[in-house]
Specification:
mainly beta, 1 helix, 15 strands, about 5% helix
Amino acid sequence: SPETGKPLWYRPIKAPTNTYIFQSGSHVCELLPTGYLNLYRLSDGTFEKRTKLKAFVSSNGMLYQGNFISGITSGKKVKLRMLSPQSDRVVWESELPSAGTFFRASRRELGLLGKESLSIISLDTGKKTLEMKFPKLKGIPYNVYAWRSGTRILMCVPDQVMPNLNALQTLQRAMNYHF
């Protein structure tokens, strides 16, 4: 409570690894790695229901505005899917090259950097906002840092030869790309 500074309610949750807990509308959602979704009322923590999501594909993913984004690899492509856990419906799907590193390109965009390609998609629509050839890398990067400024994106791709660097050394040894 903002008035008293004391919790309005609490509830112990025994969640396995890769469980996502987030707010969606008037509920606290607990998305389990098995594809089950537990819903609790936000106002008082009361358990409401447990459902098996039919559209669920993987527990490896990310949350975006109460929705869950994950992918499934098929051959040389990965199919990204945004799932609305509350309604168990697919909001959008997008197909990208499978080998690469995903990163947040901006608050509303997701990027995939492969050995020689770069794709950026809108998290709102799943549509590609950028697809281009990229300078050939030594290998698939293990991490990518990106910042958007207007229509431009600045990316730092860590040096693949030195994978055990701390964050500051990584940024100092990174290749910077600005487009």
